[in-house]
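Contributing new records

If you add data, match the layout below exactly. Sequence lines come first and carry their own label; structure lines follow with theirs. Keep one chain per record. Anything else will be rejected by the validation script.
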Amino acid sequence: MGQAGLDHALARHQLRGLRRAVLQRHFHGLDQRLADLADDQLAGRLEIGIEAEHRPLETAAWFADGRDTGNFEVIVNGVFNYMDDPDLFLERYTTSDTNNWGKFSDPRIDDLFARQARAVDPAERKRLVNELEKIVLENAYHIPGLWWARSVVHWAKVKNYVAPPNHYSNQKLQDVWLAED
């Protein structure tokens, strides 16, 4: 490993140690993956000579700086919705959406979003969605950092439960029952 690689590794190690101390003191167990994502982003900038400040904030201040005032250059912002559909997940990249915290505007994205929402042919919609996603990623409007997995565990007496494809579908459990011993 060359000197640049050693410097990068040392910077990342130091940032992680500092971040853990800050998180333990202020966030009481905030998921370490978010801290590691921030460290990786910060260390990558340091490696190419860009100085950056990382300001771990409590939730109200994070919303105030992020959503309300846009006081950031890069922000960790979770993407979650009640179902897996491009209309929900991609709207945040359109000019007028309230979840567009970066306030970026790209007429191509607005056009592709509107067209994919109206598309009735699944193959055409997929093509439009992929084109929109490519623009988002190429312009770094969004940098994917992690994928949260879920673990679905249930008791052997629970019958007729089928794990849905996401966190939010089929939570009524209308067809589920408990078997007798």
